[in-house]
């Protein structure tokens, strides 16, 4: 019950890590504004939280995180319902097709940056403005990637976008440390999600880039489970991590040190 009475916003909450993160916050007593484009999935999540008798609740908020209006609206919605914003989790993200720089298209680059960089920027900007006006302040957790700390495990667009998200995390953590606002990132490796499943199917994947990104990986290192990543997010968001800000925590089973 670390988040009893807390107001939390989680993007990309309709599946995978985001769904688990939202569920686990509700399990610990939070009111969670769950954000995604798929309304049906969000309603299913809210229904499961209620039927499972969790102490918290999920409030669906349908929208595309590429939009400034959606990012600002989801935070306004949380404040309207709870009177405050305690935690923002920028989890929504998309992969590229493992294209190396020689193969990347303008369209793919813009799409990846719209979701992975511009969306979190809109959300963080609004969240900081709200938190500065609260006595309780708050904190931000960005779901980045080892692609944002190591340069060889994804395509050019995804790698660059996650480096940008790591940079925003570190900068924000420093800029507002004296104001009591924390900002940290979780950097997963491979995780069992819809994205990883479609990636492994080879649909729309650049085989040259995929081969280079996977070269030299220890195939005995397992992929993570959404609940393992959610546990890391909740720890970083909790008061147990009160001395952490500007940190980028690798949660990858050892892939980045392979």
Automatic annotation (TrEMBL):
Annotated Pfam families: adh_short
Gene3D superfamilies (UniProt xref): NAD(P)-binding Rossmann-like Domain
Q: Which domain of life is it from?
A: Bacteria
Keyword list (alphabetical) reads: Oxidoreductase
Q: Which PANTHER family match?
A: CLAVALDEHYDE DEHYDROGENASE, SHORT-CHAIN DEHYDROGENASES/REDUCTASES FAMILY MEMBER
Q: Which family does it belong to?
A: Belongs to the short-chain dehydrogenases/reductases (SDR) family.
Its protein name is SDR family NAD(P)-dependent oxidoreductase
Origin organism is Paratractidigestivibacter faecalis
Organism classification, top ranks? Bacteria, Bacillati, Actinomycetota, Coriobacteriia, Coriobacteriales
